[in-house]
Amino acid sequence: MKNKIVIIGGGISGLSLAYHLESMKAQDYVLLEAHDKAGGLCGSYNINGFTFDYGGHLLHLSSKYALKLIQKLLNKNVAIHKRKAFVYIYGKELPFPFQNNLYGLDDNIISECVKTALTAYKDKSTQNITLFKNWAAALYGEGICKHFMFPYNQKLWQTDLNEMTCAWCGEFIPKTTLEDIIKGAYSRRKKDFGYNAHFFYPKTGGCGALCEQLLKKTRNIKYNCEVTEINLKEKTVKINGADIFYDSLVSTMPLKNLGKITTGLTASIKKDFKDLKHNSVYALNIGVSAKTKDAHWYYFPEEKYPFYRVGIQSAFSASLTPENCSSFYIEFAAPAGKKPDFNKLEEQTLKYLLELGFIKEDIKILVKNWVEIPVAYVIYDTKYENARSNIIDYLKNNNIYTLGRYGSWEYSFMEKSLLDGAALAEKLIRK
Ligand SMILES: Cc1cc2nc3c(=O)[nH]c(=O)nc-3n(C[C@H](O)[C@H](O)[C@H](O)COP(=O)(O)OP(=O)(O)OC[C@H]3O[C@@H](n4cnc5c(N)ncnc54)[C@H](O)[C@@H]3O)c2cc1C
């Protein structure tokens, strides 16, 4: 079998590429999906009337094209929300982001944060800084780093923060100014900060409703087709024992995994693959028989809480639960592939949800389900940049294009998948 374009993976990236190829009337492609349904991490699933996502999945849109595309695909089935997110720390709920909302903390902590921010702004600039810890200390000061930036990021990344660079920070950590730190330390702010101050979310169907619309335009998708081998020399991929030839191969599967199934790699590229690192995330989705707090999500920097984030799925749309119920996603991170003890985490989590007032003694847990994301966040350490760019260039020279957060091995998001899928479709058509 031969197809001009073979796409690995029917998540939002592969679907966006297929959608845009179809829009350009290019049908000589096939999309191979390992599972029996499309959507990947941006899919949703339903259990007993509760719709869950794979961890919190909200649409943050900054490009006009992506906004237009979402409106076209979801039509009236989308709502815009103003973020209601908090940091839970030292027994207090502070609005997110921490650095601009210190008001409410104990006086001595506020003084420490403000004093060290003043020193940071006097002494340092973030220009030419490459390491994450230095970057954060120069931008926020030692106090904000000590109380939030370092413990929270340690919990999320599960790696030695001293090895991490700040290459990923630009978009994902709300920047600040000394003025905003000080104003937020002595009064409650109303100003919005950060890329996720507003977000879009489907009114029904969960995040997966978007992929379902993309899927409607994707004719050549084949399910239960896990690519188990890529042969660079023969330009073939193997699925269920059969070879498929390609002119161009597009991979959205995790780049690290692609390295493991590709034959014909040079020794130096094999070494680069070894340098790619990532963490794993496990999300506990639960549905309960009562309403809960009026908020979207909470960050937990303190070590005593095993989770780094608790989201209230039912706050994104009332359609996601049966009447008078609510649902949560509780996210835990672990070093790559290190599966935690789910029973122990459940026990601790329910105790803390009760203690924190998310649930009450008399509610019933109606649904409980674990989501496993073995490759969740790619780690930007000092080897990342070099290894990633060597691999991507090498693959491109072999007619293999990488796409998406995992295919391209980057800290990215749904909007970028949509846009990169569109751009790659155009490139492949012109080839
Ligand atoms: C905890 C968490 C929260 C997130 N929250 C947000 C958010 O709020 N907003 C946002 O915009 N983004 C968010 N993201 C990022 C978002 O999930 C990704 O950007 C998006 O899922 C990338 O889509 P993808 O299609 O590239 O990859 P995936 O969704 O991973 O899809 C890849 C597909 O490839 C298939 N596949 C893998 N290997 C093979 C193989 N060998 N053969 C065939 N098929 C294969 C998989 O089954 C899967 O369907 C979050 C990510 C995580 C981990």
Describe the structure.
Strands 1, 2, 9, 10, 11, 12, 13 and 19 form an 8-stranded mixed sheet that branches. Strands 7-6-15-16-17-14-18 form a 7-stranded mixed sheet. The chain is of the alpha/beta class and 431 residues long. It is 35% helix and 23% strand. It is globular. Bound molecules: flavin-adenine dinucleotide. Flavin-adenine dinucleotide is lined by residues 8-14, 32-35, 40-42, 55-58, 60, 226-227, 252-253, 281, 331, 373, 376, 404-407, 412-414, 417.
Mind sketching the topology for me?
Blueprint: E1 2-8, H1 12-23, E2 29-32, E3 44-47, E4 50-53, H2 64-74, E5 78-82, E6 85-89, E7 92-95, H3 107-123, H4 132-140, H5 142-157, H6 169-172, H7 178-186, E8 198-202, H8 208-216, E9 221-222, E10 227-231, E11 236-239, E12 242-251, H9 255-261, E13 262-263, H10 267-274, E14 279-288, E15 297-299, E16 309-312, E17 326-335, H11 342-355, E18 365-373, H12 384-397, E19 400-402, H13 404-407, H14 414-430
Parallel strand pairs: 1-2, 1-12, 2-9, 6-15, 10-13, 12-19
Antiparallel strand pairs: 3-4, 5-8, 6-7, 10-11, 11-12, 14-17, 14-18, 15-16, 16-17
Helix pairs in contact: 1-8, 1-14, 3-4, 3-7, 4-5, 10-12
The structure holds flavin-adenine dinucleotide.
